[in-house]
Amino acid sequence: GTPRRARATAASRVRSRLVGMSRNNGSAASGPEKRKDLAAGAHKTKSREFYDIIRQIGECKNKTDEDAIMRREAMMLRTILASPKLDKDKLKEYLIRLMYVEMLGHDASFGYIHAVKATTEHDLALKRVAYLATAQFLDEHHDLIILIVNTVQQDLKDDNYLVVCAALTTICRLVNEDTIPAVLPQVTELLNHPKEHVRKKAVMALHRFHRRAPASVEHLHGKFRQMLCDKDPSVMSAALCALYDLIVDDPKPHKNLVPSFVSILKQIVEHRLPKAYDYHRVPAPFLQVKLLKILAALGAADKAASEEMYSVLSTCLKKAENSGNVGNAIVYECVRTASTIYPSAALLEHCAAAVSRFVSSPSNNLKYVGLESLSGIVNVNPAHAAEHQMAVVDCLTDPDESLRKKTLDLMYAMTKSHNVEVIVEKMLAFLADAQDAHLREETVTRIGTLAERYAPSTKWFIKTMNEVFAIGGDVVKPRAINNLMRLIGEGSGDDDADASLRADAARAYAELLRKPKLPKALLEVIVWTLGEYGGLLTGKSNLEVMDMLCDAAETQPEARALAAQTMTACAKLAAQATASGGAPGLSEKASRLVERNLNSEDVDKSQRAHEIVHLMREDASVVAAALPRDAVGEDVDVDAATTSIEAYVNRARQRGAAEYRTESERARESERASARPPADRAQAQAQPLVSAGNEYVPSGGAPAAAAAAPPPPSGPTLRNAQGSWGDAAFGDARPAAPSAAAAPRAPPPPVDPEPPDERSMLANALFSGAAAAPARAFAARAPVRARAARKTHRLAAARAFAPRDVPEASVEPPLVEPSVVAEPDARSPSVAFLSVSLAVLANAAYDTAAFAAEGYQGIGVPDDEATPLQNAFGAVFTVFCGWYFLRVVKKRGNRAKEFRVANTLPKEEREARDAEQLAKAKKLTPMQAFTGGVTGLAIAFVLYGFTQTIVGTFDGRPVPESYQARQITITVRTIVSGLAYLATFVYAANGTGLVALAAQKWLGKLTGVDL
């Protein structure tokens, strides 16, 4: 229904504009008679069929009905337009109806030529509609464009400025490189037209020409500068848009325009433009944004130009604050400009103060803008981020995924050696929750980049990359896998440390192989590491390590693609065992794996299997030479003369094999062979490929006699003399903060120390220089909650080398506090039963809401963990509610039993029994009734305060975007708040009734009348 209504609304607006166009044209035409004729012609186009079509489109309930109406309309218009007796008075209406057919997705090509022909008509209203229809029907590459060029040239010289504007609008839509020279001189002359509307459209047309063919208007760039000084603001704004594109392409030729742009911006900020350009009392905000973008492009890395901008930027920033959304847009653009141009300490201080309002705003949209602005400021001076450290930490746990991503972008920009561990940990937590494939790939790449640049140790780097492979192995790039293997193999140059590192890695990977499912990227690293250093495992022989790898190849879903690597790893382990004097050869499982792949369809697997079988038959020295131990970083000597295959080449020559030919030589030979007669080609193809000795003769002859040495290894390594880790390693391209970017801040006044919480510890790790101890202490806590809806403000400390036990979910406090539930008066069991039942139902509704909202955010359930005292209090209260519920049910049962017994008594005994119970009921004293009423009202007052707390908590949480989650959220909130309000009302009503009863009894005592 919504798309249909939107289309109908858009169509109605176009119809209103087109049908009412005649009135506007009449007012612009000269002479009262002409205006009368135009108005009459406008009324003639409003036929009944026209309005019927609009009404039927608006009443359609589905797309099928709309398509049927449009097909019928298209057939009717085709018949009418093909008629030789076409009524010119109704042609405008037919073109409007034809545009409806085109806009709603149906073919209207049969009417294109009629729209083009109508552009030559002298009737103003028809001409404008024809230009509008032509601009909608055609594009710049259509064949009919050539037909309207002559008409456009004539209309550009028309005395009526409305005709000129219609032609300029059509030019902007349909111009192409071939038609630009035909209309360019006339458009240039229109820059001096007396009507500002024409001058504006002429500038827009030249701007369009520049985008289509920049070389065609290269000599007219000076015209844009002239129009910047036009007395009409609309013409000036059109020139600004054109100059912005020119400045973005090449800012250097336009540096001398900085004073002009600053002057224009100052006049706008000071409200010197007409009121018509104001938007929500903000002067020309869109012009301000465009000017700020221009100044940012001109002031980048230019101190002299930037100094001219500081004053007007500060004024613009000050005037735009507290001006609503459009003011926020200007503030953001001011901050972006200030962080792009040559920095000013005072201006950055002002920008940081303005950004603080965004970051601390409850609106996620403003928080997002604040984080984006803060990222630009941090690139210039990271000290400004320390002011907002707690707000940034809060954004890390926000339910909004886009806000968390933007926070991670900010943290990525401010990562250094002291906070890399905390930031990478938060990125890993974000990666675990992210679902979008592109977002996961970007996060994995950033984690790898930070780990390579700022890793405090090789062991931490390996652990981090293992976690990355385990969480995001589906998007890990091969480069990251190769870097991790190289770091494990090359080490840091310290033999003892490297041996310990490799033993720890082998032991950790052996433990990881026990998991039922591992990603392919991690399996590649595990297979390679155990193949190289599996012999370092204590308590396991090489044969046992081979069996582990073979078992993983059988059980792991992703390991079948790694069968070739697994066979190579087993061969390396066998070679190590042979070299160390252990049991030679492969294990039984490894042998079976190799035998299965001997006849594999995969060429790589089959080749490796045959090579391993033949290699295992050789002597131990040959095996050790082919598969050396710990030779990852060693250079391979290549025999450029290839003497090892000289004997094979000589034997092939003796058998008549041809000499080796290069690719170009073979291509020329193929060309000559294709030019031969067919008989010669058949004879050449009939030559055998097998020699007399039944040996294969290579058709290409001997292989190449020279091979290039492999290039030196590239990528991260720990053997550089300067070291591989640190703030400046691996080409950190982020701009360094200038030394004079900002003045040092005064230290804050001393305050009494408070016990640090999780947020403050994380902020200290992120924004201070001493992050080693606090960050690890904070990361060591890392509790994992069982419910996804309650896991905010927690840190997940993933451990790559050992599985972790997940703690039990903590007990949440009950929804209804035990202090507000008092035992009701025994004389009103119905009220007691109802109140206690409502309390129990409220607790049940709370737990049901938490479980139903699992995976959804924004339900409004409190996030804080319950203390042991709250847990004990909740358990006692639950037991009390259950006991009281059973007590009330038991009393009800006894009462029902008495009623059943009483019903069997004679009538006289029943009446006597009822009279006796009535007499007991009248013994209720006024003081007892008043005490019960006051108690009920007090409980109702406490319940009302608790209900307001619940409602306030719900209102402070955002509603999820998903339709299903939103409906569940609204339903749960309504049920819980409704039950709380109902309990409050029941207690208030009973308390009021008891107080009234006490007053009645007191009044009876005073008057002596039994009321």
Structural description of this entry:
64% of the residues lie in helices and 0% in strands. Strand 1 and strand 2 form a beta hairpin. It is extended, with a radius of gyration of 42 Å.
Helix content: 55-70%
Query: How far is it from the N-terminal to the C-terminal residue, by CA?
Result: 64 Å
Number of helices: 44
Query: What is the average per-residue confidence, as pLDDT, rounded to a whole number?
Result: 75
Q: Please give the oligomerization state of what you see.
A: single chain
Rounded Rg: 42 Å
Strand arrangement in the largest pleated sheet? 1-2
Q: How many strands, what sense, and barrel or not for the largest sheet?
A: 2 strands, antiparallel
Please count the beta strands (DSSP E, at least 2 residues each): 2
Shape: extended
Q: What structural class is derived from the secondary structure elements?
A: mainly alpha
Low-confidence stretches: 1-12, 14-45, 681-748, 769-842, 844-864
Percent range for β-strand residues: under 5%
Question: How is the secondary structure organized here?
Answer:
Blueprint: H1 2-19, H2 21-28, H3 32-45, H4 48-59, H5 63-82, H6 91-103, H7 112-118, H8 124-137, H9 145-155, H10 161-174, H11 180-189, H12 196-212, H13 221-227, H14 233-249, H15 258-269, E1 278-279, E2 282-283, H16 285-299, H17 303-307, H18 310-320, H19 324-340, H20 345-359, H21 364-380, H22 389-396, H23 401-413, H24 420-433, H25 437-454, H26 458-472, H27 478-490, H28 495-512, H29 520-533, H30 542-555, H31 563-579, H32 588-596, H33 603-616, H34 620-626, H35 646-654, H36 663-674, H37 678-685, H38 758-767, H39 772-781, H40 829-852, H41 868-903, H42 907-921, H43 926-955, H44 963-1007
Antiparallel strand pairs: 1-2
Helix pairs in contact: 1-6, 2-3, 5-6, 6-8, 7-8, 8-10, 9-10, 10-12, 11-12, 12-14, 13-14, 14-16, 15-16, 15-18, 16-19, 18-19, 18-20, 19-20, 19-21, 20-21, 21-23, 22-38, 23-24, 24-25, 24-26, 25-26, 26-27, 27-29, 28-29, 29-31, 30-31, 30-32, 31-33, 31-34, 38-39, 40-41, 40-44, 43-44
